[in-house]
Amino acid sequence: MVEIKPLHYFVSAYEEGSITAAASRCFISQPSITHAIKSLEDRLGVILFERSKQGIKPTKEGQTLYKLATDLLLQNQQLEAAFTPDKKVELHLYIQPDINIERYCNIIDTIQNTSPFIDLSIVETVDQAQLAIIDEERLSSQFQFKVLNQERYQLVVRKDHPLATENVVTLESFKDLSFIERPYCTNRKAFERLMNEKKISITYKGKSIHDLQIQGLVKLGLGVAVIPESYIQKDDDLKYMAIALDAPITRTIVLAYRKLPSVLMTAMEETKWAYCRKK
C-alpha cells in the first residue's frame, strides 16, 4: 500500500520542479523529499523524475502518478473534512517584504471571514505559500492570481532639498544626487538601464532594509530615494515627486493562490478584490 505522506512530497516536488523548493514548501529537509520519492520509485518499480543541474523533470510514469496522486490526496482531504467538519484549515500566506500590507488589510479580512475554520499563518518564502501578496514579476507559474494594483515610483526628498519646489522631475534631475539604495526593488535593473542609457551615474550613501526606514533616512538628510507610490505618506518633512519617463516603470501587485479549500477557491474566482486606498 502506498502511503499518503510520500505522495504529498512527490506532488510538491512535481509542482515546484525542484527538490529544494519542495522541501521549503513542506517545511522539511531536502533528504526527506528525496527519500520519499526514492521509496515511491522502489515501491512502484519506475523512475518518476529525470534529474539534472537545472532541477527535476517528470517522466511519463511521473506524470501518470501525479494525476492519480492529486485525485487521491483531494479525496483524502474530503474524507477527513466530512468527519471533522469543525477542523481548522491552515493556510500559508506569503507577503512580499517591500509591499505596504496596510493597503491590503481588507483583503486579509475577507479571506479570514470566508470561513471560521480558516487559520491564516505567515510563511517566509512564496514556495511555502498557498496565498501570496506579491509583485507579479516574482510569481511562479504554479499560481493563479488576481491583479490588485499597479503602482509607479516617485522620488522622495526632504522639504528643504533644492528639488522640493518641483512636482515632477526627470532622470536628468538625478545627476549629482546622493541616493539611499533600495536593493530589494524588482525594477532596480530597469531604472539602472535607463540611467546608463542617459549616462547618468548614481551615488549611493547607504542601503535600506524596508521602505519605512528609507523615508526615515531621507528625513535625516542622508540622501534621496525612489519608492513605490503605496508608501507615500502625509509627512510635513518630506516631498514626493512624480518621475517623468517616456515609458513609466511600474510594478503590478497581485493576490496569488493555489491549492485552496473549495470555499476559498470559490471566493477567489467570484470576488472582485480591491485594495485599501486610504493613506
Automatic annotation (TrEMBL):
Q: Does the keyword Transcription apply?
A: yes
Membrane-crossing residues? none
Provide the alphabetized UniProt keywords.
DNA-binding, Transcription, Transcription regulation
What protein family is recorded?
Belongs to the LysR transcriptional regulatory family.
PROSITE patterns from the entry? HTH_LYSR (PS50931)
Annotated protein name in UniProt: LysR family transcriptional regulator
* Residues annotated as domain HTH lysR-type: 2-59
- Coiled coil segments of this chain: none
